[in-house]
């Protein structure tokens, strides 16, 4: 980074003074390009600057400066979000949290840890593993995503079926509000907070209500044992029914994942191939954890159910190494699509489990209708689908077609009483699709909350809720990104 | 109820027209007296009227009428709340939900049921028990409290240690907002809702943000087996350490309850005596559930821990009958205090589990300082204390002393990083104590939310947050109630 500020822009000069000078701010176009999008790459926009505060006070100063100078701003963690929540669509000042990455304290007795928002998800588990504890939410990006970002998006993960998503593991937050106030919601405290559930409200608010600067999380004791089952099916519907049967039997697996043929093609072509047969229709990856004595019985039940549902082959991981390989293979999931397609768009719909066969069939129809392959790799146990629409942005019109196909998949979810996001958030990707699940009054109840916290909409504005002008502008920019790729 | 309206009050006449006429409204003083308080009996105030709508549309009409005529109003379930949330301190029109008590649907496959707010908590479990399912939140008042009231207060219960409080079991809500809008947050849908967490925000908002008219709850499969342990200790600290040891061992009991000597004296004098020895210092009631194979191992661990902590006697329930008797004895808890004291005030503090011995000792000191007996009967596993301050309101000044002692107990909880309510809510009882855990900015962030939903504060106004005038007025009325009792 530059040692001296090479611009006369007074905002840049002033912002630099609020942090540690030139080494804590980026403002040159070549530096800003890395921040023009997040994990949702279809829309790009350059920020005005990126600042790197090192503590809460600096965050509050930056927020105060932006608020009083009418500069839009937003917070960014590792930038792995999948719905565009960290994209500076208004040329925001990005407040990067990556230097606020301390593990502040661990309190094993009361099962909690306090971290800064830039702390990487998996590091927490790694730090406490030898004491027999872990942090449960495990998004596929857990080796690089930050807990602050997880809070913003209410991130999920494979093991959220049994253990719940991020919001179920947040005990306290310190937050800088858009007016510069610093509030502490139970950050040094315990699980129950009187009054309105601000913790729940801020968690998953996609960076539009405040900037989280400290997080108290729940940590869990490692289960005594875990066992993992891999099952190959010749029919998707048999796999789907097996999912229903397992849950109906009263088993709550720690994870219950499904991949279809196209998804398997992808993960087998990526970094951690397992050797799955290529001609199966679907696989299930099922993990059970708990007390050793109880697990064997559950595993036997699961094997029986798979057999009744005509499984071609089913096996239990023989050791931790095999289990880890199966999971590494699963977790390459989305990125692996790059091995079989120029581009992909991941969707994130949720449906009642009982509708699984019906909705997977509908997604098949959408794939045929748009002439685009759609891979399915998802958290089957909680009905959280991830249709991956494969396309090639270099082909004129295909980006738009992919977006339409993705939207149709979400409509299919909403139509069976489902939802348009389970763990990736709405961001700029699904603003219009919010209308699939909410009417005007319901949207108004939400936007009024934003107005309270964020009256000028300077903090991460123009996201999360449909606003016709904004959606049109984003769609227009998406077309431009597509055109640029074709050129 | 009267067949003809015997008043010329135009509001009463108009409200009657919005429901089924005279049989759906109470307005005579003798009828209103039953509604002058809820489970928090220290403050009383007559409502203007009580109306009994039979569906959402009637609720919306009543709300619209009140809003446009500047009449304060509030919703009431069974009136078992313990912090005064349903007391009409402003002479509200009470909207009673007791006629909206249908079980609308049960969907076992997707583990959810839809109920009206007046549906009684325990009825749901009774309705689905033969199919092998149950509804988890189990406040001690579950045989009469309504699920609507549980949502308002985010009610807990003995089994919330493992299964979570009400908010963890709410999948959707239909709500009439104070402006008359009816919003449906995922009422026919599934677990994940995009946008801000309105479900979480409304659950536990103590009837100040909207009136819930339909509720989708999660239902759970019955555990395969459960076993219950009763352990008697000669020292409170031994019991406290046993609690810590059990949780540290990685066991998550379904319930982990504690009662001290005074509490035992009460429950043994009430409807379901068990024959607990009267000379012990504390007992633990511990329940483990799950897969049969795993439970025996956990029970053995628990017995070992109790022995290491010098238990005098410990036993496992021999059959369902014995288990049920132990629980019936525990659940008479608060009411049982009536057998040993003229009056009692129940508090509801939460502390980190590791602070249990320290805080119980502090409560002892408070008891001595105020010269009032304090019984402790509480959810030890999640650190949710219920000090019961015993007093006699007929003795001049003793009500005030009890209130002060109760407040001191909550301060003791807050001082160790705890909270002032775990499951009973703030209501009118703990408004001032909110300052123990929140500063002005933090309170402002919450009251701004109320302003959004409830700008004129007509819905259940003057509760939940400290406002000096209001607190003084409530305290004054408490003194009047106390004086009236002495007379």
TrEMBL record, chains A, B:
Residue ranges of every copy of the FAD-binding PCMH-type domain listed in the record: 43-222
Recorded superkingdom: Bacteria
InterPro entries: FAD-bd_oxidored_4_C, FAD-bd_PCMH, FAD-bd_PCMH-like_sf, FAD-bd_PCMH_sub2, FAD-linked_Oxase-like_C, FAD-linked_OxidoTrans_Type4, Oxid_FAD_bind_N, Vanillyl_alc_oxidase_C-sub2
Matches recorded under Pfam families: FAD-oxidase_C, FAD_binding_4
Keywords in alphabetical order: FAD, Flavoprotein, Oxidoreductase
Cofactor(s) listed: FAD
Name of the protein in question: Glycolate oxidase subunit
């Amino acid at each position: 980074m530059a040692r001296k500020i090479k611009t006369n822009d007074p905002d840049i000069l002033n912002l630099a003074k609020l942090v540690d000078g030139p080494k804590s701010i980026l403002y040159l176009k070549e530096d800003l390009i890395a921040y023009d999008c997040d994990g949702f790459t279809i829309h790009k926009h350059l920020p005005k600057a990126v600042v790197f505060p090192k503590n809460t006070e600096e965050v509050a100063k930056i927020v105060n400066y932006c608020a009083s100078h009418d500069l839009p701003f937003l917070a960014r963690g590792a930038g792995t979000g999948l719905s565009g929540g960290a994209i500076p669509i208004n040329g925001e000042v990005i407040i990067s949290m990556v230097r606020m990455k301390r593990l502040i304290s661990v309190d094993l007795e009361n099962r909690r840890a306090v971290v800064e928002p830039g702390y990487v998800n998996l590091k927490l588990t790694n730090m406490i593993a030898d004491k027999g504890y872990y942090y449960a939410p495990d998004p596929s990006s857990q080796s690089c995503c930050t807990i602050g970002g997880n809070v913003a998006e209410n991130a999920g993960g494979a093991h959220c079926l049994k253990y719940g998503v991020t919001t179920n593991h947040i005990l306290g937050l310190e937050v800088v509000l858009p007016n510069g106030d610093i509030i502490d919601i139970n950050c040094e405290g315990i699980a129950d907070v009187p009054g309105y559930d601000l913790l729940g409200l801020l968690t998953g608010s996609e960076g539009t209500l405040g900037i989280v600067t400290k997080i108290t999380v729940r940590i869990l004791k490692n289960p005594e044992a875990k066992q993992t089952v891999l099952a190959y099916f010749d029919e998707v519907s048999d796999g789907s029914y097996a999912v229903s049967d397992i849950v109906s039997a009263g088993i709550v697996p720690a994870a219950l994942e499904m991949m279809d043929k196209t998804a398997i093609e992808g993960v087998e072509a990526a970094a951690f191939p397992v050797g799955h047969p290529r001609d199966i229709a679907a696989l299930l990856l099922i993990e059970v954890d708990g007390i050793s004595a109880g697990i064997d019985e559950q595993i036997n039940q699961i094997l029986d159910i798979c057999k009744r549902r005509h499984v071609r082959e089913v096996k239990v991981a023989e050791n931790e190494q095999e289990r880890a390989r199966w999971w590494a293979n699963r977790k390459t999931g989305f990125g692996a699509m790059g091995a079989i397609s120029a581009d992909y768009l991941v969707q994130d719909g949720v449906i009642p489990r009982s509708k699984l066969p019906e909705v997977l069939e509908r997604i098949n129809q959408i794939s045929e209708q748009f002439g685009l392959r759609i891979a399915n790799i998802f958290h089957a146990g909680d009905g959280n689908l991830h249709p991956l629409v494969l396309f090639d942005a270099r082909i004129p019109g295909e980006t738009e077609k992919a977006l339409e196909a993705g939207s149709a998949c979400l409509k299919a979810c909403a139509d069976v009483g489902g939802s348009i996001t389970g763990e990736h958030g709405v961001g700029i990707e699904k603003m219009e699709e919010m209308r699939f699940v909410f009417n005007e009054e319901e949207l108004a109840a939400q936007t009024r909350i934003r107005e309270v916290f964020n009256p000028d909409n300077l903090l991460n504005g123009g996201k999360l809720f449909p606003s016709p002008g904004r959606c049109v502008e984003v769609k227009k920019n998406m077309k431009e990104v597509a055109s640029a790729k074709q050129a």
